Amino acid sequence: xxxxxxxxxxxxxxxxxxxxxxxxxxxxxxxxxxxxxxxxxxxxxxxxxxxxxxxxxxxxxxxxxxxxxxxxxxxxxxxxxxxxxxxxxxxxxxxxxxxxxxxxxxxxxxxxxxxxxxxxxxxxxxxxxxxxxxxxxxxxxxxxxxxxxxxxxxxxxxxxxxxxxxxxxxxxxxxxxxxxxxxxxxxxxxxxxxxxxxxxxxxxxxxxxxxxxxxxxxxxxxxxxxxxxxxxxxxxxxxxxxxxxxxxxxxxxxxxxxxxxxxxxxxxxxxxxxxxxxxxxxxxxxxxxxxxxxxxxxxxxxxxxxxxxxxxxxxxxxxxxxxxxxxxxxxxxxxxxxxxxxxxxxxxxxxxxxxxxxxxxx
Amino acid sequence: xxxxxxxxxxxxxxxxxxxxxxxxxxxxxxxxxxxxxxxxxxxxxxxxxxxxxxxxxxxxxxxxxxxxxxxxxxxxxxxxxxxxxxxxxxxxxxxxxxxxxxxxxxxxxxxxxxxxxxxxxxxxxxxxxxxxxxxxxxxxxxxxxxxxxxxxxxxxxxxxxxxxxxxxxxxxxxxxxxxxxxxxxxxxxxxxxxxxxxxxxxxxxxxxxxxxxxxxxxxxxxxxxxxxxxxxxxxxxxxxxxxxxxxxxxxxxxxxxxxxxxxxxxxxxxxxxxxxxxxxxxxxxxxxxxxxxxxxxxxxxxxxxxxxxxxxxxxxxxxxxxxxxxxxxxxxxxxxxxxxxxxxxxxxxxxxxxxxxxxxxxxxxxxxxxxxxxxxxx
Lengths: 362, 378
What we know:
The complex is a heterodimer of chains A (about 350) and B (about 375).
Chain A: H1 2-17, H2 20-23, H3 40-51, H4 63-66, E1 103-104, E2 110-111, H5 115-124, H6 133-141, H7 144-151, H8 160-172, H9 180-185, H10 194-204, E3 223-224, H11 233-236, H12 238-250, H13 266-269, E4 278-279, H14 301-309, H15 325-336
Antiparallel strand pairs in A: 1-2, 3-4
Helix pairs in contact in A: 3-8, 5-8, 10-15, 14-15
Chain B: H1 2-18, H2 45-55, H3 118-127, H4 136-144, H5 147-157, H6 164-175, H7 186-191, H8 200-210, E1 229-231, H9 239-242, H10 244-257, H11 261-266, H12 274-277, E2 285-287, H13 309-317, H14 337-348
Antiparallel strand pairs in B: 1-2
Helix pairs in contact in B: 2-6, 3-6, 8-14, 13-14
């Protein structure tokens, strides 16, 4: 509610002043908020499930295959590979700071307050894990350690949507920690160098970044069109075009067989104003999450800054920034202060399935 | 009332078996007529050729590993030769992979008769999580990126782009061509007038089939199946007790079929028709399979628990197994060793001299980028 009020204030300010710089007025980045992790037993179990490849149809992938702790909780590739025999048409986004997203997925189609539904989508979608929920449930029940861990938070069987919520509770704990920017905001003036502080000024001022990249994770959570170029491999590699058009078809998008570009939020809203709109990406932990953008088309932060310096790409709503080389360099230095320590979680291993001798006893 | 009626009928049937006229009370075995073709899916040579390609097409499965032919191999009697079908990677199936030979004649498919047409069977196999695990929307989209299929579907179905629904129709049309050729079946040649087509042992076996052994009571008509449901007490497959993956699939099947919880929690055997009707009187009942082409389709029964035809004949000779709802038609037969041999010899005469084999079709090549759109989305 408070956030909403703030945005309304910001919007009215933007309306009064107009122009890229003025749009940022009153908006700022914020330190990572306090976070109260959910039920500890759920989180522990969710960690096991996150790394368990038996949650995919043919055991080919686990959540961690595309959201690897060693790769910034993404997969390090421009475009995600997805389920065996498929190839996806978008980048596997980091799951870092899922607890603080307003919307999930690059086209913002899921609500950020419900991590369980995000997990369900990824596990059951054919291009990611291609898993039948009910079969997944029975597989998990076949593992005695999982039944025991489940009993620590609920006195019933491993079941349905709750498996997804359990994983959701785990991914919400994957958060940026110890970022220099946060220390700076909390009063340690020496946490940023002079160059980084200069970059912060560019961020809020001439660069206008803050008008969309604001709040604790550096995202307004809204949909914007900036004209990021298409990744050429999506059309060149038919496997990727297949998953793209199939996504459009199952979203009920009209005329999907004639689509040759990533239409972003339009596939969901069917409002032509939303063609090419994507959710504002967070700016946290960029140090670990290259390549960038919804299709990974930029491999470095320099590429990203140069892109915005030109005012974005085709159809962009942004204006050129005319940043000097020094300003660009300081901006990049600042952006990296939003990254914290690497968040590493060790794969807890995969306890075996065992024979049931009587119900629930194996 | 119903039970009493059934019992009376059964009892009178049993009485009839003992008389020489028994066989006359049941539809006779005989050569198969041409298979019934549904009016809404006529067979054409082009559709059959397309269906054959699709039957072999691995891209019609979740991860490109499970075309129809992976569990229905021509060289293994169009089954997979194992007790329990191999199932999708990461799973084990729970039933035997049935032959698709002569499936054209069934009005109920699958061991528990749960679907009524080949058009309805194909999606269950291609999309089922322990079979093909293919999402129809992605399988359909894959077909649209293979120009040869786009052209073939347009020719056969007149559609601009391949549709999964039509793919299933083409597969069904192809399977309607996988039928016994009466000229190659000794019994059929005999029935059509070639009295030398069966030898003395087979003729004795035929008399047992129609008389003392009582096979004709259920295995009747040209298909050698009345397509009704009976419990005979085939032993349970050990997977349900001893194999974790077998148990996973078993409970998954029960859970999704909405079977009462007690069975889900404590079951150790596959109850067949009961899972469809939820009527306890149907526990252990299975649709009678055809006895054609058995020479090529071992092992036998819904769970492949009987390895040879000798085992099957011995199973019935002993009056089947222990099971509730057992059909009163199943009684110890008192067959001698030579009678059993004769019966097997006759049953084998319902198979073709040579197995029906099909070579692998030439499949289209790789996915291709789509042509430029007629009207781009802007």
